[in-house]
Amino acid sequence: MTTKQKKMLKLPITNIFAKGDYSVKLYLGSERQPAYVVLDTGSSTLAIHDEVYHPQKDQNLTPTTYAQDVTYGVGGWAGPVVHTTLDLHTGDEDIPLNNAPIAIMTSEQENFLTVDGIWGLAYHHLNKAYNMEEYLKENEVNPANTYPWPFPLDGQALNIRDFKHLLQQQPEHDITPYFTELEEHQLVANKFAFYTKRSSIHITHDNAQEADLMADPLNQGFFIIGSGEEHTELYEGDFAAVKILHDTYYNANLKNVRVEGCADFVAPPLDKAHINTAFTNAIIDSGTTLAVLQHSIYQYIIESFTQINAAFADCLAPFKNFDGKEHGIPQEQVKLEEWPNIYFTFEGEFEDVTLTCTPQDYWQVNAPQHGLISFKFLSQLPNWPEQSILGLPVMNPYFCIFDRSEHQLGVVKFARRK
């Protein structure tokens, strides 16, 4: 028996369609409908807006009896699971996959996602679906499939969450995530990588149009699928590997944090109430444009800033409360050369790994408007475990390889990006 030749693709990505998150283009169904999907290591579902996908035109669509209802830190959606063809494409290379499971976002909380969809790159635990067959039969839906969508929801948060209670009464089934499908079909090696520069869209000038933003190199990057280390044009120096300790998210152990010029702060362990659901005190999440820090870590950083320079407090005050939108202050108020580096130390594969977050990473210039600057640290979200979500501000300085082939659960490798 011959072994399949696994493919490697270097796919261009952009942050302009998803408010700073990075999205890649994939092609859906018999019509090869293009869609930009957010690359999110903090979730596992591949989901597409129904108005983008046009499932009624897809001759390759096969309905199922499954439904999904997914809520994130902010927002969520509900909809059917179907099977169809998916294709990643660049230049003369492509990676097609037949009969791939995707969810159609049919009932969605308002303004949840401004891009065409989301590609969750985590493991199967976060990709739960529910078999609605018996329920649909009891309610005389024939055939007993979830597409076309038989549930009238208005997309309000309470309605979406209430619907989940109905689903949870039905048989549960984990859907194999799209990337896992690619790896299990031996189409790609079990790794992917990110090359990014920003955690906010860089607004080039006051009247910038989409084409201007797309052309700005600061708003571009690469998603490498099926490889990593081979791309020496994207990084320099050696890799350091952060150990993944659980495969729900990319769960890591954050050991301590240090603001340059201040004493180390020991990161508290995850509280016992969440140890069986959140597992570790930190996750590495490409789908978050902020570093969302456990309360005491956030407080340590803010207090350290004001100890270094009391005037920093005036710069930070507008960012104390988060309303789900990005805000900025005039750039001239923040002299980046006066702000310290911040060091995050993790349990590593062989030894501790320290990642450096510079002022240019946790302050983003020309965001959310030209001439403004945005602060990218946030205290943990309400109703979230005491767990730090280490998003793009921590990843941006590095070429990051999510290598799921090493050890039992994998590692995330970091090398300085060029």
Rg value: 22 Å
Strand order within the widest sheet?
2-3-9-4-7-6
Predict the CATH topology of the largest domain: Cathepsin D, subunit A, domain 1
* SS elements, strand count: 28
| Stretches with pLDDT under 50, minimum 5 residues | none
So, CATH architecture of the largest domain?
A: Beta Barrel
Distance between the termini: 41 Å
At the first level of CATH, the class of the largest domain is: Mainly Beta
Shape field: globular
What percentage of amino acids are in beta strands? 35-45%
Number of separate helices: 9
Please describe the biggest sheet, giving its number of strands, its sense, and whether it closes into a barrel: 6 strands, mixed, barrel
Number of domains: 2
Q: What is the arithmetic mean of pLDDT?
A: 93
Helix content: 10-25%
Task: State the fourth-level CATH superfamily of the largest domain.
Answer: Acid Proteases
Task: Explain how this protein is built.
The protein folds into two domains: 9-188, Cathepsin D, subunit A, domain 1 (Beta Barrel), CATH 2.40.70.10; 230-417, Cathepsin D, subunit A, domain 1. It is 15% helix and 37% strand. It contains nine helices and 28 strands. It has helices spanning 50-53, 133-138, 157-167, 178-184, 210-215, 295-308, 312-316, 359-362, 392-395, and strands at residues 9-18, 21-28, 33-40, 46-49, 62-71, 76-90, 93-105, 107-108, 117-120, 128-131, 172-174, 191-195, 220-225, 235-243, 251-252, 254-259, 265-266, 282-284, 291-293, 329-330, 342-346, 353-357, 363-365, 372-375, 377-379, 388-390, 398-403, 411-417. The strands form four sheets. The protein has a six-stranded mixed barrel. It has a five-stranded mixed beta sheet with strand order 15-18-26-19-25. The protein has a four-stranded antiparallel beta sheet with strand order 17-16-21-22. Strand 6 (76-90) and strand 7 (93-105) form a beta hairpin.
